[in-house]
Amino acid sequence: MKEAYVLLCVGLVVFPAAYGQSPVAESDTYTECTDGYEWDTQTRNCKDINECETIIGACQGEMKCFNHYGGYLCLPRSASVITAPEPTQPVESNEAFSPCPVGYEAQGESCIDVDECVLGLHDCQPSQECFNTQGAFTCQCTEGYNKIGVECVDIDECRYRFCQHRCVNVPGSYSCQCEPGFQLAANNRSCVDVNECDMGAPCQQRCYNTYGTFLCRCDQGYDLGPDGFSCNDIDECSYSSYLCQFQCVNEPGKFSCVCPEGYQLQGTRLCQDVNECESGSHQCAEGQSCVNVHGGYHCVASNRCQDPYVQVSENRCICPTVKPECRELPFSIVFRYMSITSERSVPSDIFQIQATSIYPGAYNTFHIRSGDEGGDFYIRQINNLSAMLVLARAVPGPKEYVLDLEMVSINPQMNYKSSSSLRLSIYVGPYAF
Ligand SMILES: *[C@@H]1O[C@H](CO)[C@@H](O)[C@H](O)[C@H]1NC(C)=O
Ligand SMILES: *[C@@H]1O[C@H](CO)[C@@H](O)[C@H](O)[C@H]1NC(C)=O
Question: In the chain, where are the structural domains located?
């Protein structure tokens, strides 16, 4: 590539420039030009001296001499030179010797643009902004302002700009704003829903984001508080007294049922008697039998036969007829134990008595011999051979009865009468279950 030296740029000027210099005197006879120029009497101008011709050996060695206004250059032979247009000398009036057009100023041997905006050489209004151009300047309004007369007036962009929710005009600009619960989208115009649940919404338990807002909800067993955020435990036990058979215990978010001692929970609300005799948790001693009752157990003597009775099998005693004292006593006593719940609805069949020995032609009668002084029971005969013990009153427990139920067998033909006794222990439990 060929090297190109543009004189407006290179710093190789040997002699000082003569731009702007005017002849020192104005007389025809004596005129002095600055260095590198000579007075031309014909054109009455200072004329550039071609030093390359007048100075012998102006450039040494391989350097080539290039004449230039007011001086000359020594440049490599390969260089080509682009010269600025020859300045006219002189220039009219007081700018007579400036070689640059209006709006430019000479710097060295070149003309550079004058920045009227920086130098304060403009006449822009305070509301206007000065923009420098090549050789001139313009007064413009900045973005967001309209030129009305000489003033720049703020444009109300909200009158024609689209904001999804709200537009706020500000000097020179505008902005879109969103309603609470929304945030400005990336396009700065639309509003998108804020997911408050992800942003730490104050829901105590469950948070549901909705368009523009959010909702708090509570887990099962809790009620939303009046503030809409907190969750309060529901006292399920206060709702109904039928939730639990025995006792309801409120717990955070739920409830549970408990049973009294001697019972265990069956399912969620029912109480079931614990059979201590079967589970082996009873404390009955040797020689005692365990009798399970509602809510507990009893220990009874395995052998309850008292003289003159003798034990013939478990729970059964007989009075041998050979013993004279046995003539007026029931022939046999059978021991039975049963447990009923408290406040049982009445009348209620609770025990059936059945004759075990059947004599043809005989008939049997049943009655309560002792233990029912309060009249809580009666006997309903079913037929010759059986009768039902009926509870007549709702009795509250805990309570214990020992009833002697007697069966009398009469055979008129044989003039024979015998009786046997059933000693029934009835334990009324403390609860209705
Ligand atoms: C939205 O506004 C912000 C801040 O003012 C700006 O950085 C961004 O470029 C704008 N986006 C659009 C799409 O205009
Ligand atoms: C039941 O009693 C009647 C008399 O009232 C008698 O005729 C009948 O034989 C008896 N039946 C039995 C099975 O004892």
Answer: 1-98, 156-193, 196-233, 236-273, 310-428
